[in-house]
Specification:
- The chain is an alpha/beta fold.
- The chain is built from 12 helices and 13 strands.
- Helix 10 packs parallel to helix 12.
- Bound molecules: pyridoxal-5'-phosphate (PLP).
- The site of pyridoxal-5'-phosphate has 14 residues, from helix 4.
Amino acid sequence: MKFRTFEMERWQSVYENAVEFNLSESGVHPATLAEVGLDPQEFADIRLSYSPSNGTERFRRLAASLQDGASPDNILVTIGGAEANFHAVMRVLEPGDDALLILPNYMEVHGIVENFGGRVIPVWTRMENGWIPDPDEIAAKITPKTKFISLSNPNNPTAQVFGADIVKAIAAVAGKHGCWILSDEVYRGAERDGVRSPSFWGIYPKTIVTQSLSKAYGTPGLRIGWVVAPEEDIAAMWAQSDYTKIAPPLMSDLVGCRVLENREKLYARTRELINRNWPGFRKWLDQRAGMLNWLEPKGAAICMVKYKHPINSTLLAERLRTEKSTLIVPGDHFGMDGYVRFGFGTEEDYTHAGLVRVGEMLDSLKQ
Ligand SMILES: Cc1ncc(COP(=O)(O)O)c(C=O)c1O
């Protein structure tokens, strides 16, 4: 089977540790074990066995407590949100099916659908409309073969939040056509104003939510995520995951429990990092206001920026990498040339120094 390349992840995998300034990351500066509330001594006597293959009961109970009406039987622990998305699509898609994707989006589901013989039906959001989808447009694009509607909320790459009215309207469209909703909610908890974005879980029964400790919690190195779904679908995805991981890493499940127990502290940390860094980034953007357009991010440490400079986005990112040792994500990776995505969730001085390099390049291209 031929897999199409997951362009953004390949770009980051190959170069993020090879540049001086990595502004391609969508999460915040990673938390330490101490910030998570752990003393490594606690691990001294732990026996490194296989963990329960669907995740420990303790972890699944904690994850379930984040979703109205969910129980541990509605949870499957995965290797990050990435594996969670993989199982969600595998569960509902058959070759020849259509999948309606609200774009731009983290392109994983897009790639999986195409790799496994499905057809992507795009519904684009636009900056002029606040990057918010139009439920009527979604309804108009549904075909008899549409198996699911996929979206991320808060959204990557726009960092906008779809409110309760939009979530309900999309659920109503799905209900009318009997489609699944695949809702990637890995940035839930990273909202700048601290108001939790609405989940599809509890609103519409044919919902699969994917989640992760990577973004809102600042612990991507744990590689822990989970799926929230109806019990029989969790059972089926658990069987699928016998092929992909056998079990989540024991240590990560254990540390992950502490992360979830201390979640309010970690959400606050994430929020503080984003809110601390945004004014500096905004100032940098304002200085180039005639050439750049953007919307203020609401729910992640990222910003999708439209530029007027006469250069293709991949070429711009490539030149920044090779000439300025700075990594950003080209809009081409989202099917949106003319845009670039910046991550600004890491340390303030580091972000600033990277932006100075990008500024030098952009200002030279303007002339
Ligand atoms: C929307 C979205 N879903 C899933 C993932 C995968 O995250 P994880 O590190 O949890 O595998 C990402 C990573 O950037 C993402 O942006």
